[in-house]
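Changelog entry: the Leucine-rich repeat-containing N-terminal plant-type domain-containing protein record was regenerated in this release. Current contents:
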Amino acid sequence: MLANNWSTSSSVCTWVGVTCDDRHNRVHRLDLRDMNLRGPISPSLGNMSFLVFLKLRNNSFRGELPEEIFRMRRLKHLDLSFNKFVGGIPATLGDLSELQYLALSKNNFNGFIPQSIGNLSQSVE
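Regenerated structure tokens:
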């Protein structure tokens, strides 16, 4: 589906799963759930500094979570559940001060939940 809809000949704001804000035309929502995507997540995803909603649920993403994801300070909704992520959950998760929803279940994480999660001032579902 993405191969047919994500083209450099069209605006990124028209791509499937991408929503841009009306004011500045910057990507602020990325909803790629249930797209049968696989492989590691590129650290360059962290460059999407205006992203507030990231849903990668129910794909086959694998590998460790790149720390860069946890540098997106405007992020309010993060759903990485039902993938094949491994390793620990980075302590920088606690730096997402705007986060209101977090879903990491059904992956292969190991280790402890970082104490920094207590830094989240919003109530996280």
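The CA atoms of residues 13 and 86 lie 31 Å apart.
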